[in-house]
Write a structure and sequence with these properties.
Elements: H1 2-14, H2 29-32, H3 44-47, H4 53-74, H5 76-84
């Protein structure tokens, strides 16, 4: 569930819609960090796995860095660009 939560929060970055998870207004990321209140989002299940909301943010950042390293190492970006035109 932690990886899924991170994936969802990082998805706008992967799609090029935002430069950071905080920028995407349609995300619950700010609720997870305690920077915005919502009656719809209850991040306690995920945040209960971390000591602080910042630790969750660090987890997402690490996931983002791992994703970038993994794609670069696999050559996926290059292969997609050449095969897609």
């Amino acid at each position: 569930m932690l990886n899924l939560s991170s994936y969802i929060h990082l998805n706008p970055l992967q799609a090029g819609l935002a430069k950071s998870p905080e920028e995407w207004e349609f995300s619950s990321y700010l609720e997870f960090l305690g920077k915005r209140q919502s009656m719809l989002v209850h991040p306690a299940v995920v945040l209960g796995q971390f000591q602080t909301p910042q630790a969750y943010a660090d987890f997402c950042l690490e996931a983002q860095l791992e994703e970038k390293r993994g794609l670069g190492e696999l050559g996926i970006d290059h292969e997609m660009k050449t095969s897609c035109g």
